[in-house]
Design brief:
With 305 residues, the chain is mainly α. It folds into two domains: 1-94, DNA polymerase, domain 1 (Orthogonal Bundle), CATH 1.10.150; 122-288, Intergrase catalytic core (hpI Integrase, Chain A, Orthogonal Bundle), CATH 1.10.443.10. Helices cover 56% and strands 5% of the residues. The protein has helices spanning 3-9, 14-35, 46-58, 74-93, 112-115, 122-134, 141-157, 161-165, 196-209, 229-243, 250-263, 268-275, 280-284, 291-303, and strands at 61-63, 69-71, 172-173, 178-181, 190-193. The strands form two sheets. A three-stranded antiparallel β-sheet has the order 3-4-5, with no helix packed on it. Strands 1-2 form a two-stranded antiparallel sheet. A hairpin with a 4-residue loop joins strand 3 and strand 4 (178-181).
């Protein structure tokens, strides 16, 4: 049985299967490059896997949507470790190896700065919304409406990048004001309420979008093809210079959605359900004040004198 089929039979989603196959391919390329030998699974040792883990943490880079070289986040390294453990479990199960070298391969502990999510504070959020609500509309109404709707989906629904680009027209129900997220993390479907601001932004975009042969909600202006996650990432990060907001990414907007709900008194269980978290400990991070918020709270003591 080939690895791809084995993953399907073990309930992995197409997106996860694609990612796991890429993880194996990248590891095999690294092994050949470093060892100078032909790749054979039975030659891989636990030490090889530890070396690869350290390579990912210290040396490996990738190109982002803007062509910049970036280091991998620890969370990405840990996803790679999970993929390699799955791969070697498969090899052991089908008898290609007699001993599993990945059995003791452990995730890397998250560094402190990566445990604390970044979200927009109120002035930053207001500045971003002012820009997308007013300044972009002067040149290209079609692109203005689309990009405004993208920002509103992140801030008012908290979607992940891949969930946003996967949205189809029939995922939007304006009768019940429900947005359906198909194939979220873990292949699960969830339903999110559409509030008044998000409904207006989406409907104004769909009016500009018009009738197209594709069912994708968000499309490129040239060719009318479904937007890619790289395209969305590039647009959101391009707003850093235009708004003066540092570290602006789609994930920061998703974090802002979660933090805003917690700040308004919503329960962790409600926020976890909206985000698609199966582990509430991930959601608990949004209750912890950021360093900036903690500092501002303590500074108030000085202001009272």
């Amino acid at each position: 049985m080939i690895y791809e089929q084995w993953l399907k039979e073990n309930g992995k989603t197409p997106r996860t299967i694609s990612r796991y196959l890429n993880i194996v391919s990248d590891f095999q390329s690294w092994y050949v490059r470093e060892s100078g030998e032909e790749y054979r699974p039975d030659r891989v040792s636990a030490l090889d896997l530890q070396d690869y883990k350290q390579y990912l943490i210290r040396d490996a880079t990738y190109q982002d949507a803007q062509g910049n070289s970036r280091r991998y986040k620890i969370s990405t390294v840990n996803n790679t470790i999970k993929g390699l453990r799955t791969y070697f479990t498969y090899l052991e199960e089908i008898g290609q190896i007699t001993s599993n070298p990945a059995r003791k391969l452990k995730p890397q502990k998250l560094q402190e700065q990566e445990e604390e999510p970044r979200w927009l504070n109120r002035p930053e959020r207001s500045r971003l919304l002012f820009y997308v609500d007013h300044q972009e509309g002067t040149k290209n109404p079609w692109r203005f409406a689309r990009n405004r709707a993208i920002v509103y989906v992140f801030l008012h629904a908290g979607l992940r990048e891949n969930e946003l680009v996967d949205l189809d027209l029939d995922d939007l129900d304006f009768v019940e004001d429900i947005l359906r997220v198909r194939n979220g993390k873990g292949g699960k479907t969830r339903y999110l309420p559409i509030n008044r601001d998000l409904r207006r932004a989406l409907q104004e975009w769909l009016e500009q979008r018009g009738e197209l042969p594709t069912k994708a909600v968000f499309v490129s202006q040239r060719g009318h093809k479904r937007l890619t996650t790289d395209g969305v990432y590039y647009y959101i990060t391009s707003l850093k210079e235009k708004t003066g907001i540092p570290d602006l990414t789609p994930h920061v907007l998703r974090h802002t959605f979660a933090h805003d709900l917690v700040e308004r008194g919503e329960s962790l269980h409600t926020v976890a359900k909206l985000l698609g978290h199966t582990n509430i400990n991930y959601t608990r991070r949004y209750v912890t004040p950021s360093r900036a918020e903690a500092r501002a709270a303590v500074e108030k003591l000085s202001e009272e004198r």
